Structures
1.
Amino acid sequence: MNFYNEMYDANGGVRAHYKGYEDWLKATPPERIDRKRAEADLAFHRVGITFAVYGEEAGKERLIPFDVIPRVIPASEWKSLRSGLRQRVRALNMFLHDVYHDQEIIKAGKIPAEQILNNAQYRPEMKGVDLPGQIYAHIAGVDIVRAGAGEFYVLEDNLRVPSGVSYMLEDRKMMMRLFPELFAKHKVAPVQHYPDMLLEKLRAVAPKGVSNPTVVVLTPGAYNSAYFEHTFLAQQMGVELVEGRDLFVKDEVVYMQTTQGPKRVDVIYRRLDDDYMDPLAFRPDSTLGVPGILKAYQAGNVTLSNAIGTGVADDKSIYPYVPDMIRFYLGEEPTLNNVPTYMCRKPDDLKYVLDHLPELVVKEVHGAGGYGMLVGPASTKEQIEHFRQLLIAKPDGYIAQPTLALSNCPTFVEEGIAPRHLDLRPFVLSSGKCVDMVPGGLTRVALTKGSLVVNSSQGGGTKDTWVLED
Amino acid sequence: MLSRTADHLFWMSRYIERAENLARLLDVTYQMSLVPQSLDAINQSWAAIIALNSLEETYAAKYSEVTGENVLKFMVSDPDNFASIHSCLRMARENAHAVRGTLTTEMWETLNSTWLEAREKTFDQLYQAGIGDYFEWVKMRSSLSRGTTLGTLLQDEAYHFIRLGTLLERADNTARILDVKYHVLRPQGDEGATDFYEWGALLRSVSAFEVYRKVYRDVITPERVAELLIFNKDMPRSLQFCLNSVIKNLELIANSNSGETQRQAGMLHAQLRYGRIEDILEHGLHEWLSDFMDRIYLLGNGISKDFLVPMEEAA
């Protein structure tokens, strides 16, 4: 397979937007870079920029490997990516509002009703609930890959509790500290105002009549894999980081326990899945949530960000319909591509998938984190047979896509600088008024040679993402 | 501020202070064990440390006899002993981790790297290298964390809860050290050289040796040592100094529920402000200190109830 390389063109020449960096790289002694890499490791470790790994020793924290070669995106490419992202996220929010209200898209026959209404992520509790600005996904993490000859594809829309933005910010801070001279030479669009932008968006969606809202970040606690990010965002926004046990509901109003008594809470940026939010409404065994919060939410006394029930729009079984949503709600042609997707619940698609397993990527509909997937070309016969059985047993649990020739970027690995596959997760913020984002996003890179899985749970690393200004 | 956040800050600072005080106590006992004396006397002072922390049963379950090395091992690095320095540093870090967004970067980095370094140290290495170096390290790390707090943290509620935890813990520890040592060193008439070393060591354990000389410009007597550690208002580890700071910080965080706790703190403070060492010694120092420690304990509970535990649960 031929892979698009972010830095070099097909003839081995350096791409224009990487020229400056490549010159610097050639002129910089490898020992210096090595020293800087060690410095970065130490600093990340000391600061404790870590994530917890599930299934390993309890409470164990691991460093996410940081690569010092940036991923560079020219202004023109970013502009078209940005408008595609705005379009996509606007449509997704309209879709969410629609499925919990008039369900026009179902009536119009664009998406089969059972696909939406029988989806485990569809929350009937949200039917008829009106949200400020009609926004459901205030924060969307859209995973984008570059494939083939360099076109961008959306791999998935994360609309529940997307994480990684803290690494985006810390990576930039680290790069500026290690290599200030690079930033003097390049016009790299700043990203450090993200927390400000987030706070502004959260305040904008406060319940009606609240002019100076109290915003909090809700975390499942110190053992959650993204706990660092939760504390980081609360601190950067200057708001309280709360756990479920710090909150209580009285007369359909949410309060937090403070040293000066109860204080009303208006907007909750929650990093807790729907299932755990309210033991009275969802999982009764959840000790992480707040009893009664759903009622307070339905009464419009508190804003949850993201809204309850956004999962129905980022499910892999809904993903194939997003281009249709854009056409339906906005009357526009989608500017970002979807990856062609086979829905195994359709008999024709299933047949094709079963016949072509070694070429395809098969994903569990509700899976995440790189778990429960088959990468055909990289799998053994046994693994393929195993998935064949799974597919036959439960076809509606899976989708399949052609294996994309993900783009590469030069990356420091043990044998020196070598190409590794990567993706990009921009964080798209929506309030009633506008859809906005800082330039770039989090670039994740698969450190294992040939691997197409960039997830940090699967040993992926990160890179600083540069959007160059003209 | 969130009650839970205040709770973590309060306990974070208590655990750092506890680790430091433990290092001080173990250090002075270790130093004393090097002064010529009977093995019985040495082992007695090690046993006193176990008793001081009410750890007799836990200790006996692991070690058959009381020796310096065993007690050091148990109190320095035993992860199963929740009162060991190792455990205190871990608990300090865990509490800090739970509220790391409230701490300044410098504070978090100090506590986190203290724990990361502590975790790397094995007791045998420490003992071989000279355990005194380790105690110095613990004291320095505690100083560093107090210093980064003072030098970087906004002096708002978070700061007041941290100070409250530190000073309450310190008052308890100073009282404990004085109680156990005074008990062991009760004046018995033979005022030999050993006494001088022992009282000197006690003073050093609370960084008060030079202070004593400055204040009294005289030989070291047990009564004055007690007076210094209880009543001196300017010495950072004395009981009066600690209570001065406790009532000041309590006032700064007061809420509508905390009146009774403040009253209790004020009564205790008044005893230190207007008391006399002669009266205490006449009554019995041990009794007085026991009563003091009980009241510090109740004060801690009062603070928990008024500020830290969610009010509805406390009500």
2.
Amino acid sequence: MIKASDKLKSANEPVLQFTGNWLIDLGILGFVNLLEEIYNWNLQETQKRIKENEKVVYYGLFPFAYICSEIKRKNSKIPKGLIDDFANEIYKKEFKSEKEIFDFTWENYITKAATELWKKKIIERAINKRKNEKFVKGTPKILKKKIEKVEILGKKIIKENKEEIKKLLEKSGRFQKLEYEDIKSIQSHSKKEFKKYGERFLENAVKLKEIMDDVDEYLSNLWAREVVGNNNILEERLKFYRIPIDNKYYKNFLFFNYSVNHKGQKEKFYYTIASEINREEILINLDKTINKFLESYDKASNIYYTPLKTEYLIDIVPYLFVYLLCFDRAFEDYKNIGHIVFYSNDVFITYEINKRLKLRKSKSEEDLNSIFRDTWQTVIDTIIEMESWWVLENLYLIKYTDLKSDAQRFINVEYMGISRLQATILLDDDIRRNLNQRVQVDKNEYRWLFEEFIKNRPLTSIILDHLILRLNQRTKQRKVQPLLYALALEAELSSEHDFIHLFEDPMSLKLKLDDLVPRIKKSRERMDMARKNIRRLLSEDIRENKVPHLFSIIRRQNKYSFVNSILKLIIANPEKDKKLIKHLNDYIFHQIVQNDKAWIHYALGLFTGFIGG
Amino acid sequence: MEYVKKPILMKDYDEIKIYTKKAFENIGSESYRQRLVYRLLNTATVNNQKDFFSSLLRALNSRKDDENVKRLSRKLEWLFPLSPANFEKVAYSIIMGIMAVRGE
């Protein structure tokens, strides 16, 4: 069962290593993130703990952390100190088998952690649902009676104290029934506050509060008595005691399935960790239930001929399903960008990069631009610090927008690999900083230059769209340097030094690449100089007048028309600084007239001198 | 007119510009050259080779014994006749050569 990691142990290697399959690897990352979220362990600590006692981690600490994390996702609280207690306690015990570790964890700690969430869901359902859906099978009669009391009193309050209750709950409009949230809100207010609304309201509200406290206490006691520490829950209560967790990714997967009772949840969770594919059919194939990137059998019928069997995988990757369950925890959600993870083939670097990004994100939550700036800054800084610049060439940015809740499919997943050429360019601070910008291209549309570059999309068309907005004064963006860097980059890549040969001699490619960054910078400098000189040469009025004409010539890609118009403007200003005119003359002659491939980039570079910024 | 396809290199355009600049250093005043550049720019826009060269050669004719003028004339003679695409590049090399005179 623990073959692979046993082998590694003897070689004194880290126990958690990436496999090369990004789905599994991100699962491993998610697993590490999960343990960090709950126990505050970093990757090194997790590695150490697994080495010391693998079974305790996977059969005890993991399931507890997983359920706690799901409970937290539902905005419910874990009793204070429970996590620390558990993490201490489990190491004191001695276990004979994995099953014993799991049972101990489930019965004594997972159940304790789930108390509040379970209570909340039971009461919420009883109050909010319609008559025949209020109670699941096995609900104690006492509870039904207590809920009935709550409802009667709720109706009475609505009848007698409608206005007062509306004020207390800050509600307006029609108000006919107290919902669960309303009752919880009343329960959280003090008697003093009730008094403000008169004696009659006070009496009713206090009564409601008392009954609710009573329901709470009753359920807490019931759960503590019949579920916590009990491995033999009454058969008829099993459905009633189902732990109310579900997961967007694994909506109907084993223990998340709504039809599965408490005992079933416990069993199925254990089988998942232990990869017992003979017990649970769902674990046999790595199909769409587990891997959301796969099609369903209906849509891709050839899967029937080549089902992706997990039996081979679990020999290579022990605890495969533990990692797959944690897949979604590898991603970090960025507002307006989506869920992102940076993936490289090294667990340490991937962990480090994503961790730092998370820290940055929490600091710059509100400012979208700074997230953009920081993202790649962090990635590159980490890579340089860890002296692993080679990783950049093996780095993938994986991004998805969301998961359709009905079909459980990803919406818009993108993988961005970075080529050696791109990596070389991005390692330069100036170029990276300037490309790491969002450029507005339409009313509510922005393009991230960096992303477009990595995706091998043309940047010039983005700059043209952006310039249209600027000319029409429909954007507040004023920066010019990112535009010049993008133009210089494309000019150099499209000029005679081509990088399109796939099988080029590595040595000659290296020479070319070494030369590339200085050349891009030189081009950018030239453009900037031309931009500044044309601004110095021509008055603001002339520049403003000429802007539409020049821009339309560039868009029509009419090189000589552009040159002609610019030369006429220059010749009309003979009394200006001669050095400046000489520079412009050289720029236009060498970069535009003589440059058939990339003249438009240089023309646009010069054109930026005509616009504000 | 039939064009003989000549391989015109970057070097050739550079030479045309340099020879033009040197030739025009001794031709006319600054305002004369300015007027000439305007005229040449206007003929270049409409791709009018005949008018372009007639204006240019008239200007060069005033110093036909100048060594630089001779070099430019020989270069143009070698290039002529030009295809419309080549003409534009040659024309702007000449114009920018004239403009470079006052840029010194």
